[in-house]
Amino acid sequence: MHARHPYGFARAFALGCAVATLASVACSRRSDDALPPLSVVRLATQTWAASKFDATVAQILAKNALGATIELVEIDEYKQWPLIASGELDGCLENWPSGHAEDRKTYIETGRIEDGGPLGAAAKIGWYVPSYMVLGDPSLAAWGAYQDPKKAALFRTPETGEAGRILLGDPTWVSFENDIIRNLKLDLQVTYAGGEDPLLAELDRAYARRDPILMQLWIPHAALTKYDMTRVELPPNTPACYAKAMSGGVDCDYPSDALFKTFWPDLSQRAPRVYKLLRAISFTTREQVEFLTAISVNAKTIEQASQDWVDANSATWTPWVAP
Predict the structure, then answer these.
(1) Which candidate, 194, 193, 210, places its Cα nearest to that of 202?
(2) HSE (CB half, 13 Å, CA atoms) of 143?
(3) Could you read off the pLDDT of 116-165 as tens digits, one per residue?
(4) Domain range summary for the chain, segments of one domain joined by +
(5) pLDDT-derived band of residue 1, with 50, 70 and 90 as boundaries?
(6) Which of 29, 167, 264, 286 is most buried as measured by Cβ atoms within 10 A of its Cβ?
(7) Could you check whether the bond before residue 236 is cis, i.e. omega within 30 degrees of 0?
(8) How confident is the model at residue 298 (pLDDT cuts 50, 70, 90)?
(9) Backbone dihedral region of 67: left (phi > 0), alpha (psi from -120 to 50 degrees) or beta?
(10) Contact assessment for residue 187 and residue 152, using Cβ atoms and an 8 Å cutoff
(11) DSSP letter (8 states) at residue 53
(12) Is the dihedral of CA 251, 257, 263, 265 positive or negative?
């Protein structure tokens, strides 16, 4: 939301850029000759709803206030980095630093990608169980309970056999669950729902039946407003713990994440007004939760909820689009 190496993808994309029609257009639009303005700015989004909200608000404001076009491109959060560095994508508004220390070293610290500053929302990945489970057994609120095969077995499924299940969303998201389970000797097995929507559908079904479920969720998320959930306490996060991430040594909680933006370094010259908007755009954790609640509880689409935010917050965004 472990670092999968993206360079093979980047090489394949570069080769395709020479021969494929769509990629050839992308290559030509990135020509450095006279630095012509971009007709379309391409923003990376990920599969979770908050990422799409950030970018959709930017898309609406660019169109209505600047007369500019932003195209949203859904892509694996790891694969976006080489494409932003090369200019095939122009940026991403929501990056979670906890899973991208190596990408920051490779791309930001070398100047290949611009750090676009904070998005504004504070975030944290964690493990959660319904509070009705903890009422029945308070020990389930801490990681030590899941070393006990009998307690972990409460969460087992046919897919996990004798081990308990911890359910995650998309396998491409930032995840250290397998390392945490192995290093803490927990009797658990990771399975994937396939994305945020099926993850929440599993939670809906379990909660309606008051069934056991252990899952990865994160702040900000509307599910934590909709349902009474208890965060499972893992060993405290420390810099020393996450220094072992690349070697599979994580045995602690996720860190708190200050979400940040990234941009292709030439974007400020090629689309200066859109760049100014994207640099300025920000959302509080509360704003993201309100948006996510509008989708999950009030059944609005991302586009409807984003437009509602724009309509209700002109005092906030007007300075973002000022000349």
Answers:
(1) 193
(2) 17
(3) 999 999 899 999 999 999 999 999 999 999 999 999 999 999 999 999 99
(4) 7-120+261-321, 123-247
(5) low
(6) 264
(7) no
(8) confident
(9) left
(10) yes
(11) H
(12) negative
Q: Which residues does 214 contact at the CB level (< 8 Å), separation at least 6?
A: 127, 128, 129, 146, 155, 164, 165, 166, 167, 188, 232
Per-residue pLDDT at 23 exceeds 60: no
CA–CA distance, 273 with 320 (Å, rounded to integer): 9
Integer Cα distance of 232 and 181 in angstroms? 13
Statement: 7-120+261-321 belongs to CATH 3.40.190.10: yes
| 270 contact partners, CB below 8 Å, separation of at least 6 | 35, 36, 37, 38
Phi, psi angles (nearest 5°) of residue 89: -120, 155
Can you give the length of the chain in residues?
Answer: 323
Pairing state between β 40-45 and 91-95: parallel
Q: Which two tokens stand for residue 206?
A: 């379990």
The confidence score (pLDDT) of residue 11 equals 31
- Is the torsion defined by CA of 218, 219, 222, 224 positive or negative? positive
- Tokens (6 digits) for 72: 């949203």
Nearest to 268 by CA among 259, 256, 278: 278
Look over the chain and give the mean of its residue pLDDT values, rounded to a whole number.
Answer: 89
What whole-number distance in Å separates Cα of residue 13 and Cα of residue 84? 12
The answer to whether the Cα torsion of 139, 143, 144, 149 is positive or negative is positive
Place of tokens 């040594």: 249
- How far is 226 from 201, CA to CA, in rounded Å? 13
286: its two tokens = 């509360």
Which CATH code is given to the segment(s) 123-247? 3.40.190.100
